[in-house]
Amino acid sequence: MSAADDPSIADQEALLRRVVINDATKTWDGNHQRWLPSTGGFKIDPDGVSVYRARMLAAAGLGSADVAGTRKGAAVFEVAAHEARAESLGVVGDPQPATGPLGPAHALITFPVEGPAAKKRRLRRLLGQARIVHGLELWPCESPR
Amino acid sequence: MTAVTFPMTVPVWRRAPSAAALSVPTACVDWARRIEPLARGLADLPAGWDGDDAPAPTEGTIRIALDELRRFTPAGVPMPQVHPTVGGGVQFEWHCCGWSVEVEVTPSGQTIAWAETQSGDQGWDGTLPEVREALITTLKHLAA
Question: Which among A56, A83, B84, B94 is placed 20 to 30 Å from B120, CA to CA?
Answer without folding.
Answer: B84
